[in-house]
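User: Sequence recovery, please. Input:
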């Protein structure tokens, strides 16, 4: 994680002078551009510091070592539910939500309601049914 951390930190440092130069070039009149670049710089620095902190705490991964073998990175990578339909429902709700921003608020409200139902269904998926714990 050392390389990823320094990549994000250097990107964050890079965008600070770029935003300042851009601000001078537009006479600080176009507020969206330089503010977005300052925010981008802050986000890059935040991610870089978090990844560096996590990398220092966790230690070197097999991907970080040159002498690592492929089998060292094997094993359980997380828990996924291959039979779940809730991510699809949530994606449809998000599509309705973004379409609602362009078409009308009633479509957005329909998407927001569907998103709440999808999130509750996804969170409580393992609380009931055939795969309950």
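Assistant: Recovered sequence (133 residues):
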């Amino acid at each position: 994680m050392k390389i990823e951390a320094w990549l994000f930190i250097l990107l964050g440092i890079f965008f600070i002078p770029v935003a300042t130069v851009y601000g001078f070039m537009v006479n600080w009149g176009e507020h969206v551009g330089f503010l977005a670049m300052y925010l981008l710089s802050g986000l890059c620095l935040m991610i870089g510091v978090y990844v560096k902190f996590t990398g220092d705490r966790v230690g070197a991964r097999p991907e970080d070592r040159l002498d690592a073998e492929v089998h060292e990175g094997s094993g359980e990578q997380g828990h996924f539910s291959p039979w779940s339909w809730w991510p699809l429902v949530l994606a449809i709700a998000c599509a309705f939500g973004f379409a609602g921003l362009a078409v009308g608020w009633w479509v957005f409200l329909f998407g927001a309601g569907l998103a709440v139902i999808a999130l509750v269904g996804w969170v409580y998926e393992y609380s009931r049914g055939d795969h309950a714990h």
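The two ends are 34 Å apart (CA to CA).
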